[in-house]
Amino acid sequence: MVKLNIYLREYKSSSEGIVWFSFYVKSERVHFSSKVRCEKKHWDKKKMIVKGSDPDYADKNRIIENIRARINDVFVKYRLRDKTLTRDAFLRAYNRPSDYSTFFEFIKANKRNINFGNEVTTNYTHKTVLKKVEDFQPSLHFDDITEDWLNRYFIYLKKDLKNCDNTVHKNLTIFKKYVLAAYKIGYMDENPFANFKLKRGTPSYTYLTEDELKILVDAYKAGVLEDKYHRTLEFFLFMCFSSLHVTDSRNITLEQFSDDSFVYYRVKNRNSKPEPIVIPLSEPLKMIVHNVVGTRKKGKIFQGLPADQTMNRFLKEITKDLEINKHITHKSGRHTYATYFLSKTKDITALQQILGHSSLSETMIYAHVLDESKQEGVKCFDKFGL
Length: 386
Description:
The chain is mostly helical.
């Protein structure tokens, strides 16, 4: 424990004084007022408390003891973290707001006020990210979040949860926003992300080959699947033939369709104005829409769909039953469209426009298709063997 000098600062013109604290941090003196007033005759200089003769001695001593405990708490935390405590660091830690007992309470109270820049993420995504943090350390305090803690959490995401590089990057990027908000307000002494580098992995995705897609189409046309599987496959094929994300597919309405195309709006960031993206209708897509809506003329095309996780489970069971040895999720629908479109057209700029990507670099994750086409193209010269 730190050696404290608690004394009564006396004033010649008054019979009372104010209780002050004084101590040293690395040879630098720290002293401040407790704002507790006490008459000189009621102050016990040796015990450094207010005597029982003061009518309010219990309350005054409680304040003094709370300050003593707060001071010692700062020293203990720095010692346990094996960090050097300076005078400035002590004052920051001591004067830090203490209205939240855990980091999660801070998030709950401040989530709406935190600036996420241009990033568009759903409330569900944030809940998922924070749930992982809470599972890792249920009672997370501000002082717990250090660079070492981030390294341990990184390992937890990779090894325990088996998250891929991009999922880890996304989780830590969102978590970083909350941490920086707490740091800027003053709940944390240091920014733990200052030297912690977030690296995005090479994007990976699963898509269906032409033969695999045909297997699913044949199963859909045959109508041999149980109703819940048939409806899930129907929705999945809609994404395969429309290029839409699962959320856009859930929300698209009949009013967005014409005889030969449909239009949707893709918002890439909060500051951009959404522009309409017009996509021509393929024959399979027309047939799926017709099968789903029947005689309806308006409203959402798909209604009463299962949750995304349930849908992914159904897709896993469908592909297993049809002997497609791939881990297919709802995201695979859009990836299948993009891969197949690019393999047939070789037009990556057109694909960028269809997918609503703000930059070509986003679309370049499908560039491997062009590389494969180059290999096939070169083979056409083999017939001129020399």
